[in-house]
Amino acid sequence: MKTTPILMPQMGQSIAEGTVIKWHCQVGDEVTADELIVDVESDKVSFEVGSPVAGKIIDCLVSEGERAEVGSVIGHIESEDDGCPEAKDAEERTTAKKRRHQPARSNRAPINTDDLPRMTRDWLSPSVARMAVLNNVTVAELGTIRGSGASHRISRQDLMAYLARRDIPGGAASLSPSATADEKQLASLGRVVPMTSIRRTIADHMVQSIHTSAHVTMVHAVDTTHIVALRNKIKDAFLKKHGVKMTYTGVMLYATAQVLKEFPHINASVIGNNIVLRDDISLGCAVALDDQSLVVPVVKNADTKTFAEITCELDRLIKLARGQNLARADVDGGTFTISNFGSFGSLFGTPIINQPQVAILGMGAITKTFVPVDNQPVIRDLLYLSLSFDHRVIDGALGGRFLNRLQETVESLTAAAMGVDGL
User: Fold this and answer.
1) Does 242 participate in catalysis according to the annotation?
2) 67-88, pLDDT tens digit by residue?
3) Which residue, 166, 200, 207, 339, shows the most beta carbons closer than 10 Å to its own?
4) CA-wise closest residue to 381 among 238, 259, 253, 221
5) pTM, whole model, 2 decimals?
6) Torsion angle defined by CA atoms of residues 169, 172, 176 and 180, in that order, rounded to the nearest 10 degrees
7) Inter-CA distances, 111 with 66, 105, 359, Å
């Protein structure tokens, strides 16, 4: 018999780790090749992992709610198949890395999970048991938590959800003596709400971007009066013909895709000490979700699409995102990102670059503003565009030229150029 590892999959460019959401099998279960065995997620997408071979599940090393690095081993299957060479190599790399980092685990005093009764310790994974002791969760409290794991076993995510709802009646005094200073300070402030796995990953990604890129932001005001008038005129006919709403985000995606053809250093990525000038122009669009997280689905090859095609594809991706049905291909491969915080009423902002890209465009709300025309105040519809860029690659002159060109393109867009003159 052979042992084949189950790996945490790669879920997109620049994603370093994922979270196990749900195991669909238990130790001892027989599975077939490609059968769904575990759901995982990153900050961008949920992903279903199929069994690499037919065989029997012999262990699940990463519990539900816990994170693991991409490519690391999260479980094993016993089978008569040798498995794939890539999986064997990954397991050897994971084992070697654990050995290298083993001494570092001794820098924090261990939590004594023997404080829990034997039956309870056997029912919880080590990490969940440790979290229970650290947060002074009693056995009686554990009995009130209905677990989402196999046979209602309590996962780390279940316990985190319980702690988010739980009052802390003694403040810092209710924590374990081995709690860190930060944990005691949090408890003294009031109710502690743990970050979700998606929020933690987003936070890590944003902090990494700030530490990686030298962020600079420039803002231009764009006159969109004619775009607003055009949309008001044809929006009903556009919806009837294409089945989707005509949006300002779609207009900006279309215009940006055309302008990026002239600015390859804006449509670029940084890999190590190298600048990669991307041949394709694939635009990510940040989408806020109901759980206060966000994803960035990607309109692939946007420069080759018509305005209507971009609008329809954007609508499809947003619906998939809000239904949590995005596939890995839907979020991978972006070369430039647009964030429309104007939908929440903000005039402008300073978005953080989506690594390893080198720039991101922010859209503010379109507002009616008095502007001077021939020394007379005239009401116009203004849109503020903010470009955050990596000063390691892009200087102010290039950033300014890009925004100028984008402003000119948007202000000169015609119905004929957008392919909507027949509506």
Assistant:
1) no
2) 888 889 999 999 875 555 555 5
3) 339
4) 221
5) 0.65
6) 150
7) 18, 12, 44
Q: How many other C-beta atoms are found inside a 10 Å radius of the C-beta of residue 212? A: 14
CA within 13 Å, CB half, 203: 8
Residue 55 in tokens: 């065989």
Distance CA 288, CA 290 (A): 7
Q: Which pLDDT tens digit goes with each residue over 19-39?
A: 888 899 999 999 988 888 998
Known catalytic residue at 395: yes
**366-416: pLDDT as tens digits:** 999 999 989 999 999 999 999 999 999 999 999 999 999 999 999 999 999
Question: Out of 59, 291, 395, 421, which one is annotated catalytic?
Answer: 395
